[in-house]
Amino acid sequence: MFVARSIAADHRDLIHDVSFDFHGRRMATCSSDQSVKVWDKSENGDWHCTASWKTHSGSVWRVTWAHPEFGQVLASCSFDRTAAVWEEIVGESNDKLRGQSHWVKRTTLVDSRTSVTDVKFAPKHMGLMLATCSADGVVRIYEAPDVMNLSQWSLQHEISCKLSCSCISWNPSSSRAHSPMIAVGSDDNSPNILAKVQIYEYNENTRKYAKAEALMTVSDPVHDIAFAPNLGRSFHILAVATKDVRIFTLKPLRKELTSSGGLTKFEIHIVAQFDNHNSQVWRVSWNITGTVLASSGDDGCVRLWKANYMDNWKCTGILKGNGSPVNGSSQQGIFNASLGSANTSLQNSLNGSSASR
Amino acid sequence: MGGRGKAGPGLRAVRGCGRCGAGAPLTDTVPLQVVPGADPSARQLCFAWGPAEVLVCETLFGRAGTGDGAPSSSCVFVVRRDQDIYIQTLRKLFNESHGIFMGLQRSEEELAGKSRKAQLVQVSKNYRSVIRACMEDMHQAAVSTQDPALQGQYSTQVSILSAMELIWNLCEILFVESATAGPLLLRLLDWVRLHVCDVDSMVREVLSSESPSKHKLFWNVVDVFVLQGRMDEARHLLSKEASANPTSMNMYKILDDLMKKMPVPSLSNTQTLTELELKWQHWHEECQRYLQDGTFASNPHMESICKILLGDEDAILEKKELMTTWYHFLVTRLLYSHPTVKPLELRFYAQSSMDLFLGGESSPEPLDMILMAAFEFEMHQVIKECSIVLSNWWFVAHLTDLLDHCKLLQSHNLYFGSNMREFLLLEYASGLFSHHSLWQLGVDYFDHCPEYGRVYLELHIERIPLSTEQKALKVLRICEQRQMHEQVRSICKIMAMKALRNNRLGSALSWSIRAKDAAFATLISDRFLKDYSERGCFSDLDLIDNLGPSMLLSDRLTFLGKYREFHRLYGEKRFPEAARLLLTLMTAHIAPCSFWMTLLTDALPLLEQKEVIFSAEQTYELMRCLEDLTAGNPDKQKFQEDDIETTKVEMLRLALARNLARVIVKEGTVEGS
């Protein structure tokens, strides 16, 4: 790993989220300054801010891109109790000349009565759908029935989770064998032993989402949650950021063996658990093949985890700040001088030694 | 030869960087990448994965901002994973080894025994020659650059490549060729001669001097030749010295004779190992005799050579500086004490040679451990250790694949990556996919991973930026060849959406036809029809005229195609055909209701031709259509209030009535006659 570039983000307050578009050619940042910025990568690899606008009237927690099949669409969620959908407008030659693009608000989703803590677009095979979750413990699923008209979003489902929600993750599997599924994490920190991860599955018969599982072993506040890309496996892999990093496998049991009317039951195993961040873990996210998990924690580090071919999970790299100020200008290439820098994942993935320490 | 580097320091360099995380608790082998600016004591990092890069940015979790509105100094950092992929000079390595890899996958497995082995050895040699060529380039680059930092980088890279080639060569001898006792030693000698080149410059200096035998390093060079078993060269040098010293002529002659007579294994099968051992024993005793009777006592150099010939460990170890590495020492030792060493005996000699050579003064380097594992025939260990110290997946992926083709790896059945070979190839190919042009090589590697290659390719290829139509077509072709229907559909859909956003309707339509996306084709057809209603002409005629069977993708598209056909017929003055088509569009409900008025208006000029075109029956149909439209339209108000619409309807009624009158007369006349 090496830092190839640094870009001065120029937000007026804390940045809460960065997000790559599907192809890795655009990114979006959002901040407590209530704005979202969009950045485009030019042919020579430089990043330019092509749009910056006020999106909410509170801190913007998350920003995320829709699949490019739906055009250039962003969703954001905020402390101001709303989520919003934005679309880029092609046109105005003036803007183009200045290298700027124009984003318009297509809709504001105002159903929540508390801070909207996460927003995620559903896997594209489900159509243009998004889910939000909020501090009042409700997950809402919206759909735009006409993908050409993003101002029409209908609230399809409201799932009450009973606990303050902090994060959601759609199961990306497009296999017919798997029903749509969404995992919800709660950062409720009152002293209780309630499961802080719940898994909801769509039931074709009732046309509703129903709770399929709760991860009873996770009783501490959960800050982030992420299903891994499926790779055609029969089971699912779920990463959870709580007081440590945990990786679970969820193996669907055959439906007829279960009693709860069409809902899938799962055999759940924890396959890895790392406390290397020493304290709270705030983010977990998988690479595109679901073979590397990145996690970020209170220790100020991003750690990369990878399983080798013998299914042992190990840390294969760490990103850590050095505390020194960054040189003023943006776009400088801060290349790691040594060419022989470690092939970290290679190193650890082949070490057959035991996973967690 | 310029490109030859020293393997040792190279891997030392690798080690230096590879273990940069050393010392930190719990992370002793985990490399650390420092992100400038971020303060780990006060701040955390948020991040996002991209297809090729990771974004990292300083943040504070679980808290809102400071709210003071002061500009934040935070930067977003773009972090890349596979650094070697971006090194320009290594492109040759990636490109050319891809060809060899593909050849190997296609190669005839049926070739049995010797010819198969010869084939595999040749593949191995090809890989090595690519490494060497790359090393040569890198060396040239190092020599020609003025930038000391860059020079340092190139030199490091040269030594890494050199180490890779050294390891690969040994694996080739031991695993691919699996040389047997006898030839094994010859191969190892070649290996040492090729790679121990620290002394080359000394040899060159002495040989090119005016009188080599007077050179102060003369005996060193003779020793080098003897240690490497280069007897002819050693004898040639000695003969020069002999002619300069007539007094000791006899001594030289004896030594020369001993060196000449030394039995060596042959590559052909003309002598058996027993024969060789017998001869060798004989020769050994002869050397022993000369040493004991003090023949060389007057010349310490020659005496030491004789001791070397006898395989005297101390005598050989005295020449440590001339051998530079323990594995040279090992091969020299084998040459003079165990020339018929069997492959499986190597491990004992290797271990003791390393211990003797290092003598507790220094600990083994990673390279030493890798070579040792090879001598121990621990193939798995070799790959593991290489993975730890080398900075790219190229080496382990290709070597493992070759060893797998030699049927040397037993598979490890695991849930992801069917075996080590596939695991490593997947990693290597994934790395290639993070590069804007090398990804095309990655496709072929994924193709040869039976278990997960396809799903990896699917995940990676849909992330290739579709910056131009050409690039999209290239990606599309790859997906189409592999029947990746979902990726084909998605790429076409993305392109269609992009074209539509930019108001390129023709392109949008052809992409959505390719995507077989009926809904989208309908939407774009509507845009075409709307444009036509507004402007009275069609754009992208070429495309619409040549829709062919793809017209059937959506009803609206069918209508668009047929409607355009009507205009063509009309333009070609084929009025009866045009009229029939126009009517069918309404009666068969191909045309959307919203478009009927336009169609009826299009009928006006046909109704007003001199020639009667619509038959009576057709005219009744048209009238019915008009009445359906005006009566059945819930928006009746619209027709009443809109003057233009009302006038149109009136005009149509009039034209239809007149036409009906004319046609009745005409048809009556025809029937009557």
Describe this structure in words.
- The complex is a heterodimer of chains A (357) and B (673).
- With 357 residues, chain A is mainly beta.
- Chain A has a domain at 8-90 and 100-160: YVTN repeat-like/Quinoprotein amine dehydrogenase (Methylamine Dehydrogenase, Chain H).
- Chain A is built from two helices and 25 strands.
- In chain A, strands 2-3-4-5 form a four-stranded antiparallel beta sheet, with no helix packed on it. Chain A has a four-stranded antiparallel beta sheet with strand order 6-7-8-9, with no helix packed on it.
- Chain A starts with a strand and ends in a 7-residue tail after the last helix.
- Mean pLDDT of chain A is 85; it is low at 324-357.
- Among the domains of chain B are: 193-341, no CATH class; 410-465, no CATH class; 471-572, no CATH class; 593-632 and 641-672.
- Chain B has a three-stranded antiparallel beta sheet, with no helix packed on it.
- In chain B, strand 2 (44-49) and strand 3 form a beta hairpin.
- In chain B, helix 25 (518-535) packs parallel to helix 27 and helix 29 crosses helix 32 (643-672).
- The N and C termini of chain B lie far apart (106 Å).
- The model of chain B is unreliable at 1-29 and 413-417 (pLDDT under 50).
- At the A-B interface, strand 1, strand 2, strand 3, strand 22 and strand 23 of A face helix 1, strand 1, strand 2, strand 3 and strand 4 of B.
- Chain B: GO terms for molecular function: structural constituent of nuclear pore.
- Chain B: Keywords: Membrane, mRNA transport, Nuclear pore complex, Nucleus, Protein transport, Translocation, Transport.
- Chain B: Pfam families: Nucleopor_Nup85 (PF07575).
- Chain B: One of its GO terms (biological process) is positive regulation of DNA-templated transcription.
